[in-house]
Amino acid sequence: MTNPYRSREDHILLAVRLTPNGGRDAFDGVDVNGDGHTHLKARVTAVPEKGKANKALISLLSKALKVPKTAITVVSGDTARQKILRIDGDPEDLKFKIDTLASA
Predict the structure, then answer these.
(1) Domain that holds residue 35
(2) Is 66 left (phi over 0), alpha (psi -120 to 50) or beta?
(3) E strands of 20-81, at which residues?
(4) Which of 16, 70, 94, 99 has the fewest beta carbons closer than 10 A?
(5) Of the candidates 77, 68, 64, 79, which has an alpha carbon nearest to the alpha carbon of residue 13?
(6) What is the pLDDT of residues 55-89, one digit of tens each?
(7) How many secondary structure helices (H) and strands (E) does the chain include?
C-alpha cells in the first residue's frame, strides 16, 4: 500500500477521506479508493455545513501532528469527502507522524 501523502520541499500534501457527523473525532487508518488512490480516513462529529467539518478536521490534524492550525489548508475538495490538505512543516517529521496515525 502506498502512502496517503506526497512530499514537497517545505510541506506535504495529504489525501484525506472525511466522514462528517461521524460520532467521534478520530482517524481510522489508511484506505485505498476505487481509483487506487490512498487516503487517510478521518471522522469528525461536526456537521458538513459552512465549513464546520473542515475546521474540525484541521483541528484534529493540528493536535495529532503538533502543528499550528494555520499550517494546514484545504487545497482541494472543500465540499467533498475526498480532500487534499497542504501541511506546512518538515516533510520527514510530518511523514513519520502521519505513518504513526495511519497505523494506530
Answers:
(1) 5-103
(2) left
(3) 26-32, 38-43, 72-76
(4) 70
(5) 77
(6) 999 999 999 999 999 999 999 999 999 999 999 99
(7) 2, 6
HSE-CB of 5 using CA atoms within 13 angstroms: 22
Grid cell digits, residue 62: 493540528
The domain spanning residue 17 has which CATH number? 3.30.1200.10
Q: Write the single-letter amino acid at 83.
A: K
Tally of structural domains, the chain:
1
CB 83 within 8 A of CB 74: yes
> Vertex 16, ends 10 and 20: CA angle to 5°?
135
- Look at residue 80 and give its three-state secondary structure: coil
| Alpha carbons 6 and 104: distance in angstroms, whole number | 20
